[in-house]
Amino acid sequence: MKLIYSSVVVLAVGFGALALAACSSSSSSSGNDAGSGADGGSGGEPTVAITSPTANAQITLTPPADTVPIAFAVTNFTLRDANTCNGLPNCGHVHLFVDDTACNGDAGGSYNNFGSMSPLSANLTMCAMVNGPHTAKTELHNDDHSLFKGADGGAVFATVAFTASGG
């Protein structure tokens, strides 16, 4: 099911405004909306979408850098570095997860990478196997790294599956 969803997100981004308009009518905050832009707009629920790599992409890694750039876009959410929102609503950054929590290697082991600028680098050296299938997930987080919750109380996220080789 997630694979089909990932394809829909990519198609929505690929077809531009027509598909985005159809997606923007959804009020789900659990990763079902496509988004674009670097800063929040007016009105509507915040969304995040992965714009690259495309669903089921075959990625050839170039060692020694075993990383994959994960490009994303947001709507109705202002991207800023951690601890710089100064109380601004719908403001924060993106946490990147690879293979759920299997490839997370920060100090607390809670994410693979985070930041306020696209793309984020998915570090596959944190995975048991660099080569093979992986799933990247982008998730909106508040200024203090806490989870940003959508209208339904759930995470606002997007996922994409890809296969890495050459690492």
Spell out the blueprint of helices and strands:
Elements (H helix, E strand, L loop, with lengths): L1 H13 L2 H8 L22 E6 L4 E4 L6 E9 L2 E2 L11 E8 L14 E3 L4 E4 L8 E11 L14 E9 L2
Parallel strand pairs: 2-9, 4-5
Antiparallel strand pairs: 1-3, 3-7, 5-6, 5-8, 8-9
Q: Can you put this structure into words, describing what you see?
A:
By secondary structure, the chain is mainly beta. It has helices at 2-14, 17-24, and strands at 47-52, 57-60, 67-75, 78-79, 91-98, 113-115, 120-123, 132-142, 157-165. The chain has one domain (2-165): Immunoglobulin-like (Sandwich). It has two helices and nine strands. The strands form two sheets. Strands 2, 4, 5, 6, 8 and 9 form a six-stranded mixed sheet that branches. A three-stranded antiparallel sheet has the order 1-3-7. Helix 1 (2-14) packs across helix 2 (17-24). The longest helix has 13 residues, at 2-14.
Keywords:
mainly beta; 13% helix; six-stranded mixed beta sheet; Immunoglobulin-like; 167 residues
Total of domains: 1
- Whole-number radius of gyration? 15 Å
Name given to the CATH architecture: Sandwich
What is the CATH homologous superfamily assignment?
Answer: Immunoglobulins
Extract low-pLDDT stretches.
Answer: 1-38
